[in-house]
Amino acid sequence: MNDKLLAGLNPEQLSAVTWPAKSALVLAGAGSGKTRVLTTRIAWLLSTGQINPSGILAVTFTNKAAREMQTRLSAMVPVNVKTMWIGTFHGLCNRLLRIHYRDAGLPQTFQILDAGEQQSAIKRLLKALDVSDEKFPPKAVQQFINGNKEAGVRAHAIPVPMNPYEAKLIELYAAYDAQCNREGVVDFAELLLRCYELLSRNEALAVHYRERFRHVLVDEFQDTNRLQYAWLKLLAGSDNALFAVGDDDQSIYAFRGAEVGNMHALLRDYGISAPIRLEQNYRSAGTILDAANALIEHNDGRLGKQLWTDAGAGEPIRVFEGFSDGEEAQFVVDEVKALARDGWNLSDMAVLYRSNAQSRILEHVLVQAGVAYRIYGGLRFFERQEIKHALAYLRLAINPDDDNALMRVINVPARGIGARTVENLQTASRERGISMWQAACGAGGGRTGGKVAEFVLLVEQLRARCEHLTLAEQISLIVDDSGLRAMYEADRKEGEERLANLDELVNAALGFMPHEPELAVVEFLTQASLEAGDHQADASADALQLMTVHAAKGLEFDAVFITGLEEGLFPHENSFDGKGLQEERRLMYVAITRARKRLYFTSAQSRMLHGQSRYPIRSRFVDEIPAELLQHLSATVKAAAPRRNAWQQEAAPAFVRSSSIAGWRIGQALSHAKFGAGVVISAEGGGDDVRLQINFAEHGIKWLDLRYAADKLT
Ligand code: ATP
Ligand code: MG
Question: Which of this chain's residues are annotated to bind ATP (predicted)?
């Protein structure tokens, strides 16, 4: 039995799996079998009778990883893994609090607030306390509360500040906690903190669990934060075995408070003389691994490790550079289809991107090509909250009687119109057979009546102002004037991503080619609903996997496409300082090491970003990889140009790579007999059949077919 379990492990893995009942840190690179070692160790502990299933506590990073570990374990040992304590920090804390709700001061039926519900709770609190939500935006309050909770700090423990603003935040934090206690609810951050406090204040309980969980095992240890580590220490005590696996080169959550320093702390706190190292990689072909190793060498302060494989070099990394983001997406989808025709499973292929907004154009091409796909750990573009809000305003602008749209945004951003008022409008509309909008127009005075009247006025103004604008201009105007932009600007946590998605919506509108120009808005909305309504391929179906690089952690695929490899996108423009850049490089390391057999790097020479055409230069990360590992696929690619720091050049003149099609260059300024001055932003086709995409100063972006337009261009 044991022999079978241990067969196939290399000597270092074997030593880690069969490590005595003492603490250890396995420090090893991607694909070296850390997760496998952790799972096999649990199986080995059980099958050798060293511990009962109830004596093990295992922490994973996601719920999916926990389920996977359970599945693997049940294939290895005949135990009921469902009863075992394997889960995420949140999941395990929830379980403990359910058992000890009384000691934790919670009602038996306590409910968990998700991020949205937490925000609503904060809004309610501000209202009850008559605190202005303009001065104290609910999102900012939420962030203050969660940040402190994640650092393990309660309101009363924050030193009294000089600054009255912060003093008020502390007061709100305390009041929020009191409100949650009254209502018997806990937010995510509270799960962990409450559980930590429960164990640290209740020695008998802590002793009970310490005697029970003789083995505490943690995957992805590099991404734990301070409170999580403190929680682990509390449970493991000094006598139990805390067995952690991790890779400092894959630490990608520093922005959320994760501390690689926990690795050093673990060695020190548990008197571990040296980490266990695994150096053989079993996941990736040699070329892919060489690329990962070469890239990460550019970081400093590493704990240091090298990976090797005996898998053979495999194929070179395919590098494709498209004229435009559209061409890049088309390339990815064409390759995916070709691989599928060759017998690869769609679900063994992943398309990775740095920022969520990048999925939009990929999704568009995938929908057109009829390729099934899933967005892992996220929503499809047109299902995202901010997109639905903006489109609801657009729908109201063309038809205010659209009750669904009205319901969606009547109080978004918050304008003091509560559920009761909305109910009254609904009743009025039902009783009198009119739309809610009509009911709203006739709503009486009073405080809430006044708020409704303001909303009516806003929509009237949007309608009037949208009338003579292009589709893209309408969306821009709506995002600004509805208050959505300001709302997301105030949201320091998720706002940036949501604003990027809204900008991307404007891009979608810019590139949208309606059949009937007068019906552009209607056609656009129809397409949006179709793309959103076309639900995600279900989990069991064979579907291409789309996800951010962050979401790809711990996963592996036969073929991986890393897209948008451009300065400003990946590495991200907000991360050009030293520390930020190193974290971006670790992200790139994670991305590369997801691939087993085939890896693609793709980028575009022009891209719509934040509503503007950009002419980015290729990501430095591609240049940090030895040229002999790369194979360039696009005919347009020339040798890497000298690097410029600022990639965000407004327009074309500084375009650095000379790629031309039918004599025209991306970024080249030109003049058209009818449309006037413009700049070429992308091109497609070849030979006699060439189309140029041109951004005209006065007429916006257009595609021109050179067969007809050539003689009008100078
Ligand atoms: P990451 O850092 O990306 O989380 P990891 O170190 O956790 O990677 P695993 O996911 O455990 O690596 O293993 C990578 C792949 O290598 C898996 O498919 C695993 O089954 C395989 N593998 C690990 N060890 C061996 C081995 N000794 N023999 C054959 N395959 C192995
Ligand atoms: Mg792993």
Answer: 28-35
